[in-house]
Amino acid sequence: MERDQRDLVTAADRVYHYLMFSGPESWGSHRWADWAMNRDRWDWNPGVGLIAAADYGSFGGSQWVLRDVEAWVERNLGGSEQVKVVNSLAPFAVFPLLYRLTGKRFYADKAEEIALWLVKQAPRTREGAFEHTVTENASFSEQVWADTVFMAVLFLARTARLTGNKELADEAMKQTLLHLQALQDDETGLLFHGWNSATGDWMSAARWNRANAWNAVGVPMIVEEASELCGDVEMLGELRERYLRLAEALVHCQNESGLWPTVLDRAGFYEETSGSAGIACGLYKAARAGWIPAEMATASADRTVAAVLAQVRGDGAVLGVSGGTPVLATVEAYDEVPTFPTLYGQGLVLLLFSEKLRGYV
């Protein structure tokens, strides 16, 4: 094993352990510390970490990691019954894998139940896209957010593949395309954070780093799960065309450091680690799928890996991660969001490291 590979393995292990086992004494004293790092709630933040942990364990064949994932589900499952919204579906994305590994019918049945709720009952905008609904006491009526693709559509695609349900696969692919159509800027190829169907605009029109990351990494994962069952060649073709435009635009606005600014077309804004990791992970995945040139993806994403490694603290905490961010009132407000370790930050970095390690196999 080469030194670079050993360093990456060590860093991934540290990031995983901070994600799954760190305590409040290491989270910091800021007022968002508990929300950012408390694993024991059923929501998108721990859900992203859980998806990454399952991917890490599955790739490495680490049965103890997968036992950690199942233990988290068993410990927190009750929280899934308290509220059913798009943004709280992320943890269910590990259920298809848990079913395959354990044979426990509960995981398959529950995944199908939630997927059918999503398709048949979840609120939609007038264009048919899933409305972005959240666990917090807030309403974003008629709004399409980039976040939804990773938080809900990935789960839907995985459940479609598990069940062989073509209706679910069709919907997963349709939702992915609807989100790209609503959010992609024709001028730059980048994605805006959100779209308001009622007012017909992108609100603050921020080309936010992590919004692009949720799609950069989420779209290849969704297509891998659902495209064969869906079989819509025209839809897949448009998805690939849009993704290539997005990837080229992302590579174009990457900083020399290997990271991306928190708003992609504002080079003077602070560099944000979690979104940078998600973007690079997506570039690796898309290149592996043959969607984008491998040379372009590797040249960009390898620089990101080196930069992200420098953001991993000795105890595994990932630094430079912006706090939870709704669609903000102005572009400038994104540069004022504080940074601190979060479960989704740990997760996106772990996904990146796992994807890079796949390249060594």
TrEMBL record:
The keyword Cytoplasm does not apply. Keywords: Hydrolase. The keyword Hydrolase applies. One of its GO terms (molecular function) is hydrolase activity. GO terms for biological process: carbohydrate metabolic process. It comes from Paenibacillus mangrovi. This is Glycoside hydrolase family 88 protein.
